[in-house]
Design brief:
There is one protein chain. With about 110 residues, the protein is an all-alpha fold. It has 4 helices and no strands. The protein is elongated, with a radius of gyration of 18 Å. α1 (about 1-30) packs antiparallel against α2 (about 30-60) and α1 (about 1-30) packs parallel to α3. The chain has one domain. The structure holds zinc ion. Zinc ion binds near residues 19, 44, 45 and 48. Zinc ion (ZN) binds near residues 15, 44, 45 and 48.
C-alpha cells in the first residue's frame, strides 16, 4: 500500500506541473481566466490529495507525515505557475500570440 501511495504521490506531483503552467497561461491570456482556472484546479486537487492521503494512511503512515507529503506534492503547482508566468512574460512570441488571441476574442465578442 505504501508503494502504491508513493507512486500515486509522484504521479500527482508530476501532473501538478502542467496544471500550474495552465494557470499561468490562462492568467497571461486574461487575468480573470487565470483566476477561474486556478479555482477549478484547486477544487479538483482536493480529491487528488485525499486519494494520496488515504493510501498513506492505510499503509500506517503518521498523519503529520501524510500532511507534509501531500503539501509538498501540491506545492509543485504554484511553483510551476510561477515558472510558467516568468517564462511566458520573457517569451516575446508568447506575448505576441496572447495579444493577438486576446484581440481576436475581443473582436468575436463584439461581433467584429
Ligand atoms: Zn490535477
Amino acid at each position: 500500500m505504501l508503494r502504491t501511495g508513493e507512486l500515486i504521490a509522484i504521479g500527482i506531483t508530476l501532473h501538478n506541473f502542467p496544471e500550474g503552467f495552465v494557470v499561468a497561461a490562462g492568467y497571461t491570456y486574461m487575468p480573470r481566466l487565470g483566476l477561474i482556472i486556478a479555482v477549478a484546479i484547486m477544487l479538483h486537487s482536493i480529491p487528488e490529495g485525499v486519494a494520496t492521503a488515504i493510501l498513506f494512511a492505510k499503509a500506517g503512515m503518521k498523519p503529520f507525515k501524510i500532511a507534509i507529503l501531500t503539501f509538498l506534492s501540491g506545492l509543485a503547482e504554484p511553483v510551476a505557475a510561477l515558472a510558467g508566468a516568468v517564462s511566458l512574460s520573457w517569451n516575446k512570441e508568447c506575448n505576441w500570440f496572447f495579444t493577438r488571441l486576446r484581440g481576436r476574442s475581443d473582436d468575436l465578442h463584439h461581433g467584429r
